[in-house]
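Title: Comparing notes on inverse folding

I've been comparing how different people in this forum approach sequence design from structure. To keep things fair, I'm posting one structure and asking everyone to reply with a full sequence. Here's the target:
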């Protein structure tokens, strides 16, 4: 780093994205992307006519897409916020709603939470999971601080119920509770209808996972109109045009063809269940998942070794160095063919 960097950032532990190697062709099961392409309407929307308009700024209010999402989910446009990926929304939430200087989230969860806390000098309480990697909702009741929970959680894939989320909201009435629903379309149950009852709820979703648009960078959130106004204040104080024209066009088309994406989710869920059963036959422990990935460990090979052996054979999965989960690997669900290759490759590794 240079000598000019603000000293408060010199110890920042940055988020480590999943590998995106270019040295060979891999079966990518490491970053929870969709194995299926965007819908035909999305491909048509990102066309030459739209590209020609790149000389003009995008709509900072994202009105057309906001209205489309509002209609699909049965909420008011004023209850929706759009931004450059859900990470951007989480970033703004940490910036906007942590005036007390404290935040709480699961100890094992999405790695960006602790990065944002450190970035803004926020004291964070990292709450351990139960032995089965589930979240104990009682741990989050009455905390009296900004709280973030991924539901389904990553990298475990486990969920908590709407009733438990309500308990957390009710016992923290003076603090914003963020429910990060990046994976909710893979059989989780969204809590966005609760924004009508709780002014302290912010529900964050993304087009990256279930809608095959990880490269487009588009996230959205549901909340009471006042919370949405707060997020817009931050957006319009940093980058009002943070959702580009091509992404807006693609997002509108994706909402119009929502059935296509929900059918892909059902396919992924079926493949997930089949892969889980196949790995369990090989002696793996697989945490029950409601996401587009599974969290698994073998009693016959370590997590790091399995990751390395699969990479040698052209398959990428995600391994974490945290000692609490280092025996496990997170495996994104690909196509049926890709998962068959994975299982067969693991069989070969174990038999070698």
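Reply #1:
Here's my take.
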């Amino acid at each position: 780093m240079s000598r000019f960097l603000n000293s408060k950032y010199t110890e920042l532990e940055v988020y480590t994205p999943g590998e995106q190697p270019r040295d060979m062709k891999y079966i990518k099961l490491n970053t929870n992307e969709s194995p299926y392409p965007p819908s035909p309407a999305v491909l048509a929307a990102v066309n030459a006519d739209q590209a020609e308009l790149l000389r003009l700024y995008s709509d900072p209010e994202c009105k057309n897409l906001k209205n489309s999402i509002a209609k699909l989910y049965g909420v008011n446009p004023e209850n929706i916020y759009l931004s450059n990926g859900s990470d951007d929304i989480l970033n703004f939430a940490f910036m906007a709603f942590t005036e007390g200087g404290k935040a709480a989230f699961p100890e094992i969860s999405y790695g960006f939470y602790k990065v944002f806390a450190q970035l803004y000098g926020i004291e964070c309480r990292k709450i351990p999971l139960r032995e089965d990697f589930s979240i104990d909702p009682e741990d989050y009741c009455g905390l009296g601080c900004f709280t973030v929970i991924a539901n389904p959680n990553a990298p475990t894939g486990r969920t908590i119920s709407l009733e438990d989320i309500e308990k957390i909201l009710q016992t923290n009435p003076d603090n914003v509770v963020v429910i990060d629903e990046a994976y909710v379309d893979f059989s989780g149950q969204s809590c966005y209808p609760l924004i009508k009852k709780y002014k302290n709820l912010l529900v964050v979703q993304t087009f990256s996972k279930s809608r095959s648009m990880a490269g487009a960078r588009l996230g959205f959130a549901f909340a009471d109109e006042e919370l949405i106004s707060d997020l817009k204040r931050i957006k319009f104080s940093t980058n009002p045009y943070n959702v580009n024209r091509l992404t807006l066009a693609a997002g509108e088309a994706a909402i119009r063809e929502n059935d296509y994406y929900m059918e892909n989710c059902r396919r992924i869920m079926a493949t997930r269940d089949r892969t889980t059963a196949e790995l369990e036959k090989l002696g793996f422990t697989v945490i029950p998942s409601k996401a587009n990935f599974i969290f698994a460990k073998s009693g016959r090979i370590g997590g790091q070794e399995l990751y390395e052996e699969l990479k040698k054979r052209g398959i990428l999965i995600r391994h974490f160095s945290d000692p609490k989960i280092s025996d496990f690997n997170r495996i994104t669900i690909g196509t049926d063919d890709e998962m068959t290759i994975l299982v067969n490759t693991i069989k070969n590794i174990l038999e070698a």
